[in-house]
Amino acid sequence: MSIITFIGAGQMASALTFPAFENGHEVRLVGTPLDRDVIDGLRKDNFHINLKRTLHEGIKYYQVEEMEEAIKGADAILGGVSSFGVDWFAEEVLPKIPRNIPLLSVTKGMIDQEDGSMMTYPEFWEQTEGGKGLSINAIGGPCTSYELADKDNSCVAFCGRNMETLHYLKSLFTTDYYHISCSTDVVGVECAVALKNAYALGVSLAVGLAEKKEGIGAVHYNSQAALFGQGVREMRKLLAIVGGNDDNIVYGAGDLYVTVFGGRTRKIGTLLGRGLSFDQAMEELKGVTLESIVIATRTARAVKRLDALGKYKKEEFPLLMHVDEIINQGKPVNIPWKSFEVEYDG
Ligand SMILES: NC(=O)C1=CN([C@@H]2O[C@H](COP(=O)(O)OP(=O)(O)OC[C@H]3O[C@@H](n4cnc5c(N)ncnc54)[C@H](OP(=O)(O)O)[C@@H]3O)[C@@H](O)[C@H]2O)C=CC1
Ligand SMILES: O=C(CO)COP(=O)(O)O
C-alpha cells in the first residue's frame, strides 16, 4: 500500500481517487482555498458537489491549511488544479513537496513564450523556485472525470522524464478500466491534449450553428466532422512545431472527440455557434471551468509570433485564427470553410 496525497479537489483529481483507492492505497484529498465547500460536503457524506458522485468511504479529506499534514509520509502527490491554479500550485504547493517523491499532474495547458514557442506546465513548474529538483509528471488523454468515476474504460498517457517513475505511478493507478500508456515525450503528450481544448471549441461551433438554423436539439454531423478533421490537421502541424512525436495525435484526437461530446468546452462553442456574443456566452457559463479560452488565446498568440518571425504562416491555421477572432476580437462566427480546402498532388 502507498499513500497518495491529492492536492486540488476538482472534478478530475476527485475522479482519480476511484482507481487509487480501489488499488488499496491510502488516499488523502486536499482542497484548494476555493474548494472549501467541496471538502465540507465530502466530510459530511462523501458526496462531491461538482463531480456529482459519491467518493469511496475511507478517503481522508483535508482543508488547505492541513496540506502539510496530508503530505507527511506520502509516497506520491497528485496535482489537481486547472490552468487557473497553476501559479497558486507553484507558489503554495511545490515548495512543500519532498524532493524524493514524484508529482503527477492532471492540468492540461501550455504557456506561450516571447519567441513563439510553447512551454508545458511540467517544464514551467520545474523552472520555478519551488519546483527545482522535483520529479514532475503529467496525465494526458481522453478521460472525462465523471465517466472515470463510473468506470467507463479509458486510455490515457502518463508522461515524464523517467520511465521508471512513470511505471511506479502507473502501478498506483492502473485498473481493469483505467488503461495507462507511458511516455517520456512530455511536450508531445502535453501539447496534443492541451490543444484539443482550443479545437473542441472550434468543433462545437457547428453544434450551435445547426441549432441556430433549425432549433435547439437539431444535429448535423457533416459540419462537425469537417471541423474535427481540420482541427486534427492543425493540431498535427502544431505538434510538429513543438517537436512532439506525431503518434501523440492519438491522445489529441481522442481527447478532442470526448470533449466535443462530453466536455465543458462544448458548452461555450455551442453558445457562440447559436449566435451569442463571446461576452454573453461567458456570462451564461459563469463558474464553469473553461480552459479552452486560455489555450486558444495562447496558441493563437504563439502562431502569430511565429508568423511575424517568418517561421510559419498563420494562414495554415484558419480554424485556430477564427476561434481567436471570435473570443479576442468579438467577431461573429463565420467559419472559413473554403480555407480548409487543400490540394495534394503526389
Ligand atoms: N474534468 C475532466 O474531465 C478532466 C479534466 N482534466 C484537466 O484537469 C484539470 C482540472 O480540471 P477539473 O478537475 O475538471 O477542474 P475543476 O474546475 O473541477 O477543478 C480545478 C481545481 O483547480 C482549483 N483552482 C481553480 N482556480 C484556482 C486558483 N486560482 N487558485 C487555486 N486553485 C484553483 C479548483 O478550485 P475550485 O474547484 O474551487 O475552483 C479545483 O481544485 C484541468 O486542467 C483539466 O483540463 C483532465 C482530464 C479530464
Ligand atoms: O479534458 C477533458 C476530457 O479529457 C475535459 O474537457 P473539458 O474541460 O472541456 O470538460
TrEMBL record:
GO terms for biological process: carbohydrate metabolic process; glycerol-3-phosphate catabolic process; phospholipid biosynthetic process. It catalyses: sn-glycerol 3-phosphate + NADP(+) = dihydroxyacetone phosphate + NADPH + H(+). Residues 185-334 form the Glycerol-3-phosphate dehydrogenase NAD-dependent C-terminal domain. Its EC number is 1.1.1.94. Keywords: Lipid biosynthesis, Lipid metabolism, NAD, NADP, Oxidoreductase, Phospholipid biosynthesis, Phospholipid metabolism. NAD(+) binds at R264. It is an enzyme of class 1 (oxidoreductase). It comes from the Bacteria. The active site is at K196 (proton acceptor). It holds the Pfam family NAD_Gly3P_dh_N. Residues 4-157 form the Glycerol-3-phosphate dehydrogenase NAD-dependent N-terminal domain. One of its GO terms (cellular component) is cytosol. GO terms for molecular function: glycerol-3-phosphate dehydrogenase (NADP+) activity; NAD binding. Belongs to the NAD-dependent glycerol-3-phosphate dehydrogenase family. PANTHER family: GLYCEROL-3-PHOSPHATE DEHYDROGENASE (PTHR11728), GLYCEROL-3-PHOSPHATE DEHYDROGENASE [NAD(+)] 2, CHLOROPLASTIC (PTHR11728:SF1). This is Glycerol-3-phosphate dehydrogenase.
